[in-house]
Amino acid sequence: MPGTARHDREMAIQAKRNLSKTTDPVERLRLQCLARGSAGIKGLGRVFRIMDDDNSRTLDFKEFVKGLNDYAMMIDKEEAQQIFRVFDKDGSGTIDFDEFLVTLRPPMSNARKEIIMQAFRKLDKTGDGIITIEDLRGVYNAKHHPKYQNGDWTEDQVFRAFLDNFDSPYDKDGKVTTEEFMNYYAGVSASIDTDVYFIVMMKNAWKL
Predict the structure, then answer these.
(1) For the chain, which ranges sit under pLDDT 50?
(2) CA-based angle 12:129:101, to the nearest 5?
(3) How far apart are CA 29 and CA 75, in angstroms?
(4) Which of 152, 116, 155, 115 is nearest to 139 (CA)?
(5) What pLDDT is recorded for position 5?
(6) What is the distance between the alpha carbons of residues 23 and 189, in angstroms, rounded to a whole number?
(7) Would you call 170 exposed, middle or buried from its count of C-beta atoms within 10 A (0-12, 13-18, 19+)?
């Protein structure tokens, strides 16, 4: 439903193709994430978050490299150092990983960001900035889902599977934040050329 499988496949193929042509280390990392589909960048974010033991929301170089390795990114140490230097603007030896993820996201126009936020606000019934199963009850009809219809899943299982679309592959907690939603759609957005088409797709998907 939200980011169609076809878009995901197209984007992954495109990212792999571009990877062989680009030498910019940040762009290479972005493309490696996108080659995993819409949730690729968000997945890397989750790996970093798990490693941030002291909740400082920053990473030093060693943690940064370990995160890239844990996520099986093909990046040598020299390339990792170049990327780290780009993000360590003040030369403090640490990088802010929220800023890192925002920079890594493929750029989106304001029109696209606005329609993504409209969809988020529609789903976030309680308005607390996090979408949960409770939020979905009145907004998303689980009864049309084939697995609900054939008795395999309960309504809550359908909701949970829906939320897992946006959640990171490594840490599915049944909660979707604004940042995760935006990261997911940045991935989808990368496979869609025009704003008009992206906005039409979002309006149809979410009945906005």
Answers:
(1) 1-3
(2) 40
(3) 8
(4) 155
(5) 66
(6) 23
(7) middle
How far apart are the C-alpha atoms of 154 and 151, rounded to whole Å? 7
Residue for token digits 């030369």?
Answer: 91
138, containing H or E segment: none
Q: How far is CA 93 from its chain centroid?
A: 26
Burial (CB < 10 A; 0-12, 13-18, 19+), residue 74, is exposed
Strands 58-60 and 130-131 come out as unpaired
CA distance 187 to 156: 26
AA letter at 63: E
How many residues does this entry show for the chain? 208
Nearest to 3 by CA among 90, 119, 175: 119
Query: For residue 130, what are the β-bridge partners?
Result: 177
Predicted TM-score (pTM) above 0.70: no
CA atoms within a 13 Å half-sphere pointing along the CA-CB vector of 5: 0
Q: Are 39 and 190 in contact (CB under 8 A)?
A: no
Nearest Cα residue to 180 out of 198, 167, 194: 167
